[in-house]
Specification:
Layout: E1 9-13, E2 16-21, E3 25-26, E4 33-42, E5 50-53, E6 59-66, E7 69-76, E8 81-86, E9 93-98, E10 104-109, E11 114-118, E12 123-128, E13 135-140, E14 146-151, E15 156-160, E16 166-170, E17 177-182, E18 188-194, E19 197-204, E20 209-211, E21 221-226, E22 232-239, E23 243-250, E24 255-260, E25 269-272, E26 278-284, E27 287-292, E28 298-304, E29 313-316, E30 322-326, E31 332-340
Antiparallel strand pairs: 1-2, 2-4, 3-28, 4-31, 5-6, 6-7, 7-8, 9-10, 10-11, 11-12, 13-14, 14-15, 15-16, 17-18, 18-19, 19-20, 21-22, 22-23, 23-24, 25-26, 26-27, 27-28, 29-30, 30-31
Length: about 350
């Protein structure tokens, strides 16, 4: 990668201005591409938890909290400037997701609510109440008409995006539910804890019934992803202290085809590349791990050199050209533009 000229940007929070520095990276999340003008957004008032990249790669949503009040900041990726702050949650925003067409943003928080936001007007459209404990994850169905939310109350709830009304509650998890992901066909995966281990369930949403999927798992499920062709599902599993695993299923058979364990990794979040050929996983200090799919062969990782923190969340635009990740307790976000190698 050719070194880029460092930029200095600023984000105003009240009377204070926050410095935004350029982060230099080595490697690329997608083979055949290079990182262009990587940047690190720093100075958030509290730990950053949720992140989402809009399908067109133009916006990055970041969730954190400030003084007990939630703060969702929307950034223009090209300029790295904050264009809006969305307020409504109490506490902390833990997860974010853009709708497939990019017109809506969903957020989940420790105030037990899920909220929907109009991206164009920057206004809240619905506050979805029903969970009895922390709302931990959100995901839109492929048609954008249904939103799924996961909670520590052991349920997954399905919401009508247009009306904000609850459509169904999927019960059956033994413990807290920490992640959700839709398949391209509209089926749903949900995952979380089961005692000290993990649990993943596969749902036919229309029939509200569970589908066959191999069980087990030594660690709680922190994140889920489905390949663009809907053939594979993967779970990022881990606990603090550098212990975890990545599990991969063939959704056609329900069979687990890979369990990946690397000492020192506590996997937190994951995403498939736009072509489905790579699985990109965060969870180790400075490192975004990668495996080719479906053979699960280790690939050179993305090394983030300006942080020593755990990569707690990752996001990728629909076209695979914009990559973002969160460095959790360090209170920063890394933004990377990917371009074809010449």
């Amino acid at each position: 990668m050719t070194p880029t000229v460092p930029l200095t940007l600023r984000r105003a929070v009240g009377a204070a201005a926050l410095a935004v520095a350029v982060a230099l990276l080595a490697g690329s999340p997608v083979p055949g591409q290079q990182a262009k003008v990587p940047r690190q957004l720093k100075g958030f008032p509290d730990a950053v938890h949720g992140i989402a990249v809009s399908p067109d790669g133009k916006l990055v949503a970041v969730g954190s909290s400030k003084g007990g009040k939630a703060d969702i900041a929307l950034y223009d990726f090209k300029t790295a400037k904050e264009v809006a702050t969305l307020k409504g949650h109490d506490g902390t925003v833990l997860a974010l997701a853009f709708s497939p067409d990019g017109t809506l943003l969903a957020s989940a928080g420790d105030d037990k609510t899920v909220r929907l936001w109009d991206v164009a007007t920057k206004k809240e459209t619905h506050a979805l109440a029903g969970h009895t404990d922390v709302a931990r994850a959100v995901a839109f169905a492929p048609d954008g008409k249904t939103l799924a939310s996961a909670s520590l109350d052991k349920t997954v709830r399905l919401w009508d995006v247009a009306t904000g009304k609850e459509k169904a509650s999927l019960a059956g998890h033994a413990d807290r539910v920490l992640a959700v992901a839709f398949t391209p066909a509209g089926k749903l995966l949900s995952g979380g804890a089961k005692g000290k281990g993990g649990e993943v369930k596969y749902w036919d949403v229309a029939a509200a019934k569970e589908l066959p999927l191999a069980k087990g798992g030594e660690f709680p499920v922190q994140g889920l992803a489905v390949s663009p062709d809907g053939k594979l599902a993967a779970a990022a599993c881990g606990v603090e202290g550098g212990r975890g695993e990545v599990r991969v299923w063939d959704l056609g058979t329900g069979r687990e085809i890979h369990t990946i364990r690397v000492p020192g990794n506590e996997y937190r979040s994951m995403v498939f590349s736009a072509d489905g050929g790579q699985l990109i996983v965060g969870g180790k200090e400075q490192v975004v791990s990668m495996w080719s799919m479906p053979d699960a062969k280790a690939m050179p990782p993305l090394l983030i050199t300006l942080t020593r923190d755990v990569i707690s969340a990752v996001g990728l635009s629909a076209d695979g050209k914009v990559f973002a990740c969160v460095t959790g307790a360090e209170k920063s976000v890394i933004l990377v533009r990917l371009e074809p190698l010449k």
